[in-house]
Specification:
mainly alpha; 75% helix
Length: 257
C-alpha cells in the first residue's frame, strides 16, 4: 500500500472510533464527568478540609492530577476494549483483517481512537477541577508526555484484552480486578511517604504509581518517584504491549477460527 492509502486507512479507523464514542456521549463522556465531580466534592471538599495538606500542598490540589489520570486510564482502556471486542463479536473485524491494511495500522488506529476518548475526558476533568482549586503547570513537557504515553499504554492494554476475550463478561475482568485496585493503590489519594517502609516498597511495584506521580510532578512539581523513571517505565511497557499486540494480530489470536 502507498503511504497515502495507509494514512487513509488509519484516519478511517480513528474517525470511526471518535464518532462512535461522541455519538453515544451520554454513555461514554457524561458518566466519568459525574463520577469525577463526586470525587472532587467528597474527597476534596468534605474529607480534604479535614485532612488539610498532603505533601505540602492543599489536599484538593494534591488529588486533582491523580483523578485526571484515573479518568484518562479508565476511558482509554474502556474505549478500545469495548469497540474492538464488539467488532470481533459481530465478525466485522474479519473484513478488516483480509484487507491489505497492515496490522500496525489497525493497531495504531484503535490505540489513537482510545487516546482520543481518554484525553478528551482528561481535558474535561481538568477544566472541571478548576471550579474546585487552582492549578499551575510546573513542567509542561513531562505533564504532556506522561498523560499521552499513559493513554497509549492503556489503549494497548484494552486492545489485548479485547483480543483475548471470548464473551462480554471477559472485558470487565481486568478493569474490575486489576485496574481499579491498582489505581486506588497508586497514590491518587495519598502520598506513599505516609506508609510504613514495607508498604512503600510494595507500592513501588505498582506501575500506576509512576504514571500518577509523573503527571503530578508535571502539574505540581511534587512526586514520590523520579518523573524520568516514570516516563522510562511507561515507554518500556508500551514497547512490550505493542510487540504482544502485533504478534497476536499476526497469529489471529482470538479472531481467526
Amino acid at each position: 500500500m502507498t503511504s497515502a492509502a495507509l494514512f487513509t486507512a488509519f484516519r478511517t479507523i480513528v474517525v470511526k472510533e471518535i464518532r462512535r464514542f461522541t455519538r453515544i456521549w451520554v454513555q461514554t463522556l457524561l458518566p466519568p464527568v459525574i463520577t469525577m465531580t463526586l470525587y472532587f466534592i467528597i474527597f476534596g471538599n468534605l474529607i480534604g478540609s479535614r485532612i488539610g495538606e498532603m505533601g505540602g500542598l492543599d489536599y484538593m490540589a494534591f488529588i486533582v492530577p491523580g483523578l485526571i489520570m484515573m479518568a484518562v486510564i479508565t476511558n482509554s482502556y474502556a474505549n478500545v476494549v469495548s469497540s474492538f471486542f464488539s467488532m470481533k463479536f459481530q465478525r466485522n473485524i474479519e473484513e478488516l483483517l483480509v484487507s491489505p491494511v497492515p496490522n500496525w495500522v489497525i493497531l495504531a488506529g484503535w490505540v489513537c481512537g482510545g487516546m482520543a476518548r481518554g484525553l478528551s475526558i482528561g481535558l474535561v476533568v481538568t477544566l472541571l477541577s478548576l471550579a474546585f482549586t487552582s492549578l499551575s503547570i510546573h513542567n509542561l513537557v513531562i505533564m504532556v508526555a506522561t498523560v499521552f504515553l499513559t493513554s497509549a499504554l492503556f489503549s494497548l492494554g484494552g486492545f489485548i484484552n479485547a483480543m483475548l476475550a471470548t464473551k462480554f463478561d471477559d472485558i470487565s475482568i481486568v478493569p474490575t480486578f486489576v485496574l481499579t485496585p491498582l489505581t486506588y493503590l497508586g497514590g491518587v489519594f495519598y502520598s506513599i511517604d505516609l506508609l510504613p517502609e514495607f508498604w512503600q516498597g510494595v507500592s513501588m511495584a505498582n506501575p500506576i504509581l509512576y504514571m500518577v506521580n509523573g503527571f503530578r510532578y508535571g502539574i505540581l512539581g511534587v512526586s514520590d518517584v523520579n518523573p524520568f523513571v516514570s516516563l522510562g517505565m511507561i515507554l518500556v511497557f508500551i514497547a512490550v504491549l505493542t510487540a504482544i499486540a502485533l504478534r497476536m494480530l499476526a497469529r489471529g489470536k482470538g479472531i481467526r477460527h
